[in-house]
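Why should sequence recovery work at all? Because a backbone constrains its sequence more than one might expect. Tight turns favour small or flexible residues, buried strands favour hydrophobic ones, and helices have their own preferences. The token representation captures these environments compactly. In the example below, the structure is given first.
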């Protein structure tokens, strides 16, 4: 009897490059969409046809976060039930179309509705991209591939700022927002090139289809999946089963505190540094150093996680971030401040990328996008809390140092929360048992 083939390193690398490139582009597009509002908001506030009040602008900014809350939950579950590839394509189409059409909005209300619809699609992209990227990463390189994919988000934010800088003065804010339609051009290419998740096909008992796809890709059919031992469907209840309760709580708390840290600093860092006594130019550049370091640091942390383990890197990263943020409460020479800001970026955004990769790794294939999607949805409460905390400190004119104290405490809390997650490689299946795909079917796939 033939033995199952093991995927070659060349096949794994080839497919991984393809999948990671497409998911990277999706995260880049998402980053552009998330960053574009902040980039054009000053111009929108001065638009004489809208008379946009700051309070209304805040509601518009919140619309995308509300959409992301629902999108992460809905599409994470839908992806595990009906297929990750079609759901991923639907999310990419939805947020690209809604984002681009917002450029034609006749009033702030329509703009907010379209931003909310875009948020629903954005919320679904992350869990599906996470599941696909992780599954198709070469063995031993999952963390670095995941981090590489996630750098697209930070680079997309940077691109939105750069394009706004180049175009908004002469052409207005609508063209900058309208560029959000560009990803629609890539959807047909992604539909042609992106493979479906092999794990999803096997878990949904489409083994013959999985064999055909695996043979085409030069990979092996996943064999350690449960084909019938459990009838639990992907959803919230599955994540709170007794054997997953501690992991779910740990990841939820970690992402909640991480999003307080990430969104709080992203929103308020320039103003905080202005309050600390720095000039406007350096204050804005601190945010640039924060974003660039988080993008570059993700790859380095990914390599470290593959070599030394995810949990030690996550804990060390958050603790280093907490230290750097706390040190920013003092006024240092400008080069030192830039270095501390860069470390804060790595110890917040970059390490959160590794943590999300660990989440995708920990749960079984049949729950992977569900677990990431629902966890990311819950983390939106932290994403909304971070800017509110910074606003509260500014509103009541509290010392600027309080910002750094609060955000450093959030980083420490994130590090401690990951310790709640049981220390094991991964839950192999919904019931904790594994079975192999029938040998004759594997023989057909390799004959």
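From this structural description, the recovered sequence reads:
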């Amino acid at each position: 009897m033939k033995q199952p083939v093991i995927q070659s390193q060349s096949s794994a690398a080839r497919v991984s490059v393809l999948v990671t490139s497409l998911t990277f582009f999706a995260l880049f597009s998402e980053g552009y969409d998330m960053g574009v509002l902040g980039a054009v908001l000053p111009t929108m506030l001065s638009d004489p046809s809208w008379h946009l009040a700051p309070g209304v602008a805040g509601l518009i900014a919140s619309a995308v976060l509300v959409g992301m809350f629902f999108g992460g939950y809905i599409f994470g579950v839908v992806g595990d039930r009906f297929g990750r590839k079609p759901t991923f394509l639907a999310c990419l189409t939805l947020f690209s179309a809604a984002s681009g059409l917002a450029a034609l909005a006749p009033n702030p209300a329509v703009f907010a509705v379209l931003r909310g619809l875009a948020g629903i699609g954005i919320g679904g992209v992350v869990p599906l991209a996470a599941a696909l990227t992780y599954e198709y990463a070469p063995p031993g390189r999952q963390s670095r591939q995941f981090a590489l994919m996630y750098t697209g988000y930070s680079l997309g934010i940077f691109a939105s700022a750069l394009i706004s800088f180049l175009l908004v003065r002469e052409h207005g804010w609508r063209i900058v927002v309208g560029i959000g339609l560009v990803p629609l051009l890539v959807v047909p290419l992604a539909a042609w090139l992106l493979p479906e998740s092999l794990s999803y096909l096997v878990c949904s008992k489409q083994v013959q289809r999985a064999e055909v796809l695996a043979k085409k890709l030069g990979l092996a059919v996943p064999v350690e999946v449960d084909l019938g031992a459990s009838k639990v469907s992907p959803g919230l209840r599955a994540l709170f089963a007794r054997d997953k309760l501690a992991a779910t709580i740990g990841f939820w708390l970690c992402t909640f505190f991480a999003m307080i840290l990430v969104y709080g600093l992203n929103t308020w860092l320039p103003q905080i540094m202005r309050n600390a006594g720095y000039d406007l130019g350096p204050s804005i550049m601190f945010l640039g150093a924060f974003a660039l370091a988080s993008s570059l640091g993700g790859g380095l942390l990914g390599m470290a996680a593959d070599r030394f383990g995810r949990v030690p890197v996550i804990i060390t990263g958050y603790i280093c971030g907490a230290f750097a943020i706390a040190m920013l409460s003092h006024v240092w020479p400008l080069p030192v401040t830039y270095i501390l800001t860069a470390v804060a970026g790595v110890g917040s955004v970059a390490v959160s990328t590794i943590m999300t990769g660990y989440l995708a790794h920990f749960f079984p294939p049949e729950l992977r996008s569900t677990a990431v999607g629902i966890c990311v949805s819950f983390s939106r409460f932290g994403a909304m809390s971070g800017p509110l905390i910074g606003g509260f400190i500014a509103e009541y004119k509290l010392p600027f140092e309080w910002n750094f104290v609060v955000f450093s405490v959030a980083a420490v809390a994130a590090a401690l929360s990951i310790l709640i997650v049981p220390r094991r490689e991964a839950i192999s299946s919904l019931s904790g048992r594994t079975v192999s795909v029938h040998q004759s079917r594997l023989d057909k796939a390799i004959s």
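A few observations help interpret the result. The chain has two domains: 1-195, 232-428.
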